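Example 9 (inverse folding). The structure is encoded as follows.
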């Protein structure tokens, strides 16, 4: 189980780092999904990208992985309004309505995935 958890941790870290990097490679996409009621759209996109990269890296450092997992959960909750806005404005990302609908609970799956890494690995006797 320890090996599976370690692989999972690396996969989550890679996902976060790649997602954060995309904020800098394709900021226009992320700008489109920032709800209009939030200020400083460009800054929010860049700051969230920095945090995704930073938390992904910290997840790989044993001393900080526990806190990084909590940070990822917090970040996923913070960006949920963008996913909801995208669902409400599906023309931003052409896909079937079902795909847009499934993206919403997928955020919960990612939160549970990160939550698994908030607990210290079990010690083997």
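The amino acid assigned to each position is listed next.
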């Amino acid at each position: 189980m320890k090996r599976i958890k370690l692989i999972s941790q690396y996969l989550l870290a890679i996902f976060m780092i790649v997602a954060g990097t995309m904020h800098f490679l394709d900021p226009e996409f992320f700008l489109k999904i920032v709800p209009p009621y939030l200020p400083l759209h460009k800054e929010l996109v860049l700051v969230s990208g920095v945090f995704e990269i930073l938390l992904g890296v910290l997840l790989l450092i044993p001393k900080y992985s526990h806190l990084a997992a909590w940070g990822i959960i917090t970040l996923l909750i913070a960006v949920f309004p963008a996913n909801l806005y995208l669902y409400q404005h599906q023309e931003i990302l052409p896909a079937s309505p079902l795909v847009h609908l499934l993206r919403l609970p997928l955020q919960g799956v990612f939160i549970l995935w990160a939550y698994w890494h908030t607990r210290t690995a079990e010690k083997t006797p």
